[in-house]
Input
Amino acid sequence: MKKPIVLIVLLFIIGTALYAYKMYNKPHTDVLNTVAAETVSASAIFAAFDNEEAAAMIKYTDKVIAVEGLLLSKDLSNELEPQIVLEGNGNDGFIRCGFKPVMLSKVSALKDSTIINIKGMCVGLNGSEELDLLADKDVVLSNCTLID
Amino acid sequence: MKKTTILTFAILGLMLGAFKNHSGGIYKTNTGNINFFSHTSIEDITADNHKVKTAFDATSGKIQFSALIKDFEFPKALMQEHFNENYMESTTFPKSTFSGTIENMAAVKTTVDGIYTSKVSGKLTIKDVTKDVATIGTFTVKSGVVNTKATFTINPEDYNIKIPKTVSGKISREIKITVDADYRHAH
Output
């Protein structure tokens, strides 16, 4: 009678430990193989954050978002994360997309002033009107991949 | 007449020389690095952000940073989730900012290659809590790029970051923040 109870308790402990181990080591979101939760234009996502940041944070962040926009420039100044800048509002608003270093050659090959499609994890709106040197704003996406 | 002409040219020359050596203007980057590191006997925790927006005014010494909290990447996804959801509440408080001064800006010659140091002090805001912080910044000028490095420590409890008792031993009360940014002349 005692043996089955001990066995159940043991199985429960082993199961819990395995689940905890799996959770502890769960991988980051695989952007490449994740279907985008939203597909938006660069100007639309910038406007959403610029008009109502709190609502846009809830709608877009922590999700894989696909964005189409005009490539303004490539910013390869940080080898730890090659980046590109898409036009956001044509003035002082941009979409900044960060890539893993393995994407450097593909990012380098992009042509400025062309329309490109990317997807990445949306992490928010950087820049602040309260900081006069940083008043320009970027909607930021991380772990981006290029969509053909 | 000759004397006046010579004097005029001399003044013009001095003015041009002054402009040439003037190291003013705004230096900026959107690709600055911030790392934070927590060490305890149980666990080390580290995370990096490579898209920090920062700029300084080489005339006044004003320096500013803005970093998105959700852009800190941890080696483990679960740690990143806990950091954002449980401790930083990063959907509600999406960024951390610093606004301060390079106190000895005159000693940092942004147009002359070399290594300079200056105290940097100002106000750090995390989770809408603002505290004074100060550290020594090292400014390395090379070929027009001004690399800035600085480290300082913060206590998470000072910024309303509540650490549950169950994980209290895993998170240091002295989080080391390391800043490393390559600034370029913006205008």
Observations:
- The two ends of chain B are 40 Å apart (CA to CA).
- Chain B touches chain A at residues 26, 28-33, 48, 50-51, 53-57, 62, 64-71, 73, 76-78, 80, 84, 90-92, 94-95, 97, 99, 182, 184 (CB under 8 Å).
- Helices of chain B lie at 2-21, 77-88.
- The first helix of chain B runs from residue 2 to 21.
